[in-house]
Amino acid sequence: MSTVILLLVTGLGLGALYFLIASGLSLTYGLMRVLNFAHGIFLTVGGYASWWIAVRLPIGEPWRFLIALAGCMVVGAIVAAAVEVSLIRPLYRRHIEQVLVTVGLALAFTALVQGIFGPDPISYPAPGWTQGVTQLAGANIPNSRLLAIAVAAAVFLLLAAFLRFTRWGLIVRAGVENRSMVTALGIDVQRAFTLIFALGGVAAALAGALGALYFGNIDPQRGTATLIFAFIVIVIGGLGSFTGSVLAAVVVGLLQQFINYYSSVYWGFSAAGDLSVVLLLAVVLLWRPQGLLGRSVG
Amino acid sequence: MRQLRSRRSTIAALVVFGLLAAIPFADFEIPGLFNGLLSQPGPLQLLALCATFAGVALSYNLLFGYTGLLSFGHALYFSVGIYLTDILLTRYHWALLPALAMTFAAGIVLPLILGAVSLRVGGIAFAMVTLAFAQAGSILVYANPGRLTGGEEGLGLDVTRIPDFLIGVINTKNLYWIALGYLLLTFVVCWWAVNSRPGKVWQAIRENERRVEVMGLNPYVFKLLTFTLSGFLATLGGIVYLLLLGGATPGVTTANLSLALLLMVVLGGAGSLWGPALGGALYEYLDFRLLKLSSSSEIHSLPVWLRAPLAEPLFILGVLFILLVFFFPGGIAGIAGRLRRAGHR
């Protein structure tokens, strides 16, 4: 029983990381039909920025970690906004070129990080309490998982409230629904897009810092590796659907964690969970090509 | 006029391939570009790799350049050629011909099945789904199930299964000819395919899929055809690559290779035939030379802010790619076309 609870929480923790990346991807796609292949670099930026700040701050916990976290969010927002303004906006509506440019950026940026900080994982100065465990129904749950879940839940509530109650959120929701109509009404969707892009960068940067706690280190390749699962999440959830990406992130995280655990216990093969996520994707596509909560594909 | 031009380009292609085939007899140096005589194993090996990637880039060009399908998973079919052949020969001790036949079969069946699933969605979703399938292949190779793939270590090829004339540094020229033969085969197949009736439909799908549907054709079938053909050609390229390197390394299964293929095609000019071939060869050459450069002493004496980016070939290639998309979207073929038009005026 305690194993099941442990797997449940770890799976949710993984789902939380996926959600933090997928939410930004899904909204930017929904609003502007932009697939940002460089979204993974925001995760890398978040991980390395929080590490860089944390090892330089001469103060104690919990402030050190909190300041590092806040710092990585700021850096994530700045980098994301810079990418949008300099690379994506000039190629407005040329979707394939936008994808190509973000592909080039993802390759170049990952290589740059590797060149500066080295190709090997760097151990992360995690605060002590995140490395401890919490007793929950007889299971020892690592605190880093609980933290990831709590932060993702907070981000979800904030983003949902932003979309539901603010004027910008209204523009975004209307833009996802029918962008040309919103533009025809004289509302600048482009600015809402830049905002959403930056918010997506913040969420992904948070995922980078939390992922560093989750895995215990930072690694130049993790951004791309996690991004691939985030892509799977948003296709399963339905491209452009915010709620769909939440649901799919949870399903994918749990499935991956449970199957990985049991297949490595019984067959000594630890990649079955990762593979079953791809299988789930294939099943969803055959059954509902538009994804769980997506509208028909346009 | 058109026939004249097509005959002229056929002659040009024959001359180019003839010259390339004669390189193993070229006992001279090209200083700065290649180290040592061209006919030496070192330059020949590099040229053979360039020819192989030129062919694989051509196969990817069928998808992206001619049909407008943005796949991020082409590395999977290339890897099948490498790993399946290697596993059958080295782990199961099959003879060469049955192993090749089995790989050919897999090179048709796998893209057929995966294409049938992933082509249910279009555009960006298709890109992500192909990426996911290729990632599954990569995970499988790294996970090393039943110790078949060798995991991170890779899997050396059991050379007792390979005919003698393909083994050893002394026989690099034979491998080079095989790679060149592969490039020629891919070139001819692609040329024939894009000029065939389905090829015309592919290009129509690229321009406007809805109109193809309105004309009573089912785009799905044609897309599956190009997906399967290009997957099969990539599998053949994988076999050549395996023979060239004498083993398999898991790096080729990752998304980076699929992205590199995209770079090669855009670099050369999507939707032209010789462009992507040139792009593939050039990319492989640059990648190799930049890697050599990054370990040179000149680079190591630079200050860190210059050394870090210059020592990473992918950084330079990625930036080059971004500039290309912004300023020369037609790639090398586009630039050549512009020059030719300017010359006519």
Low-pLDDT stretches of chain B are: none
Shape of chain A: globular
**Pair with the biggest interface:** A-B, 45 and 47 residues
Series of H and E elements of chain A: HHHHEHEEHHHHEHHH
Under CATH at level 1, the class of chain A stands as: Mainly Alpha
What oligomeric state do these chains adopt? heterodimer
Strands of the biggest beta sheet of chain B: in what spatial order? 1-2
User: What proportion strand of chain B?
Assistant: under 5%
Number of strands of chain B: 2
Sheet-strand content of chain A, in percent, reads under 5%
> Distance between the terminal alpha carbons of chain A, to the nearest Å?
45 Å
The profile of the biggest β sheet of chain B is: 2 strands, antiparallel
CATH architecture of chain B: Orthogonal Bundle
Strand order, sheet with most strands of chain A: 1-4
Radius of gyration of chain B: 20 Å
The radius of gyration of chain A is: 19 Å
Tally of separate domains of chain B: 1
Question: At the first level of CATH, what is the class of chain B?
Answer: Mainly Alpha
| Biggest sheet layout of chain A | 2 strands, antiparallel
CATH architectural label of chain A: Orthogonal Bundle
Write the layout of secondary structure elements.
The complex is a heterodimer of chains A (298) and B (345).
Chain A: H1 2-32, H2 39-56, H3 63-88, H4 95-117, E1 122-123, H5 128-131, E2 133-136, E3 139-142, H6 143-165, H7 167-177, H8 179-184, H9 189-215, E4 217-218, H10 222-237, H11 242-266, H12 272-287
Antiparallel strand pairs in A: 1-4, 2-3
Chain B: H1 2-21, H2 41-66, H3 75-91, H4 96-118, H5 123-143, E1 155-156, H6 172-195, H7 197-207, H8 209-214, H9 219-245, E2 247-248, H10 255-268, H11 274-294, H12 297-300, H13 304-310, H14 313-327, H15 331-344
Antiparallel strand pairs in B: 1-2
Helix pairs in contact in B: 2-6, 2-9, 2-10, 2-11, 3-4, 3-5, 3-9, 4-9, 6-7, 6-9, 7-9, 10-11, 10-15
